[in-house]
Specification:
DNA polymerase, domain 1, hpI Integrase, Chain A, globular, three-stranded antiparallel sheet, 13 helices
């Protein structure tokens, strides 16, 4: 019986994953995260002797109580989102009559504020690549482009020659959910990219021809891990003590735009957020920074 039961659970999960992949058009990394979360949830239910379609609210509350001690707030929130979406799917498909996860709200206390760099830290980071070298020109173009556009790491390493227009200064990218967007890159990023493409990229090994813009030292397309290492090394050289990732630069891009007077809707479009509520987190960051500045510099904080 247990084999049949496990097989039925696997089928439910496969059907849900196929649903969010085909009908919802979610990004590959998001799909992997949902799959991972639900497999962990199913394992929890198995220990309790409960089938996913027999779950009640007590089971869900017990799951939350256990995971609160094991997961970061951000991971816990993602688990809750995965479970709510799974049960909404089961109701839609007629597999269950009511959604047991309908009471599972996302706790506001778990809404995190991402790390960002100050303008001075960004400037220090951008000064680190040695633009007298082939790799330095490439890295300078990468950093300038990340800060000028707010691209996600996968979007940046996926850029191809056909995606850039250096005459008008725009790039085209395909973001989450296979949604296309056009983003201005700014003069400094455009100049760095031109210099890299003209003086540096032709020097990379040509064992195979690739149309990707950014290549590694072996002449192959750059990987996410390779890009993370590059940014981490330059952050250390710049004396930045924060953990700096490509997403840190993306957050800094959005926050600095908001602080400079840009409207949320424009920032939402450039970041590729489907819901403006996701973009609104940057208003919280801006307020926190104002509070920090006030406390630091006002004579009577």
């Amino acid at each position: 019986m247990s084999i049949t039961k496990d097989h039925a659970e696997d089928q439910l999960l496969d059907q849900f994953i196929n649903h969010i992949k085909v009908e919802r058009g979610l990004a590959a990394n998001t799909i992997l995260a949902y799959n991972h979360d639900l497999m962990g949830f199913f394992e929890f239910l198995k220990k309790r002797g409960v089938s996913p379609i027999q779950v009640n609210q007590d089971d869900l509350l017990s799951f939350i109580a256990e995971k609160k001690t094991q997961l970061s707030p951000r991971s816990l929130v993602r688990n809750l989102v995965s479970i709510r979406m799974f049960y909404r799917f089961l109701v839609t498909e007629g597999r269950i009559e009511s959604n047991p996860a309908r009471i599972m709200g996302i706790p506001k206390m778990y809404r995190y504020l991402p790390d960002i760099l100050s303008r001075d830290e960004v400037e220090a980071l951008l000064l680190q690549p040695d633009i007298q070298t082939v790799l330095g020109k490439r890295d300078k173009a990468i950093l300038e482009l990340l800060y000028a556009t707010g691209l996600r790491v996968t979007e940046l390493i996926s850029l191809k020659m056909i995606d850039i227009n250096l005459e008008v200064g725009f790039i085209r990218t395909i973001g989450k959910g296979s949604k296309e967007r056009i983003i201005p890159m700014g003069t400094k990023a455009m100049d760095s990219l031109k210099e890299y493409l003209t003086d540096s990229r032709p020097s990379f090994p040509k064992k195979e021809e690739f149309s990707y813009i950014f290549l590694n030292s072996r002449g192959r397309p750059m990987t996410r891990q390779g890009l993370w290492k590059i940014i981490k090394s330059y952050a250390l050289k710049a004396g930045i003590t924060k953990t700096v990732t490509p997403h840190t630069i993306r957050h800094s891009f959005a926050t600095h735009l908001l602080e400079g007077g840009a409207d949320l809707r424009s920032i939402q479009i450039m970041l590729g957020h489907s819901d403006i509520s996701t973009t609104q987190i940057y208003t919280h960051i801006a307020r926190e920074r104002l509070k920090e500045i006030h406390e630091r510099y006002h004579p009577r904080p």
